[in-house]
Amino acid sequence: MDKTAFYDLSYGVYLCTSWDEGKPVGCVANSAMQITSQPATIAVSINKNNYTHKAISESGHFALTVLGENVDPLLIGTFGFRTSKEFDKFASTPYSVRGKLPVPDGGIAWFSCKVISTMDTSTHTVFLGEVIDAGKLQKDAPMTYAYYHKVLKGKTAKNAPTYQEEAPAPAEKSAEKWVCTVCGYVYDGETPFEELPADWTCPRCGVGKEMFKKQ
Questions:
Q1: I want to staple 11 with a disulfide (CB 3.0 to 4.6 A). Which of 30, 74, 116, 139 is the partner?
Q2: DSSP characters for the chain?
Q3: Per-residue pLDDT at 173
């Protein structure tokens, strides 16, 4: 099977959020689509290992936030490479309750959905949600997954439906680099660091210097 054929399917970049006993939780989703218009329904695929999967299953509701091309990459890093089970993603993320669900600031549109059906697979659950409310947040071009990879140089989280294991890149003999072990961000700036500064944080997912390794 030529797995690169899957790269030609179209995807977006979204934040899927819900409540966990009153606490806001969420994760990045790239497999979401409108199914019908009357009534308006949206389907989203969430990995069973994601803590957000548990929250949606128990609450019966989810919100989907559409991200634009000019979104702060840290928002994607925070929601895409850390787990709500161990980290409060909303502690440093401004949000509002819209349609009775937590919607992070920084997106371009949002949808509040009630789960009306599910489809089970070995690794993911596809939640089908009837749209209860929706709104616009700001003007921007919706981000495609291709844009996320090619322009923002973003990595695919292992829990994503589109994750494909890649062969490690050949070692380079150039200047040493610092690589984030959480999201894969590579620091290879003009000013090399023999040691990262004590207050260094990953500009993509926000973890500290202890999560970086030198290559």
A1: 30
A2: --GGGGGGS--B-EEEEEEETTEEEEEEE--EEEEEETTEEEEEEEETTSHHHHHHHHH-EEEEEEPBTTS-HHHHHHHHSS-TTTS-TTSSS-EEEETTEEEETT-SEEEEEEEEEEEE-SSEEEEEEEEEEEEE----PBPBHHHHHHTS-PPPPTTSTT----PPPPPPSSS--EEETTT--EE--SS--SS--TT-B-TTT--BGGGEEE-
A3: 44
Please check whether residue 194 lies inside any domain of the structure.
yes
Q: How far is Cα 83 from Cα 89, in angstroms, rounded to an integer?
A: 8
Residue 115 contacts residue 62 (beta carbons within 8 Å): yes
Task: Find, among 6, 7, 3, the residue nearest to 149 by Cα.
Answer: 7
Contact 211, 180 (CB under 8 A): yes
Q: Which residues contact 176 (CB under 8 A, 6 or more apart)?
A: 192, 214, 215
- Per-residue pLDDT of 120-154, as tens digits, reads 999 999 999 999 999 999 999 999 888 877 776 66
180 in the same domain as 119: no
For the CA atoms of 31, 74, 107, 63, the dihedral, rounded to the nearest 10 degrees, stands at: 50
173 and 122 fall within a common domain: no
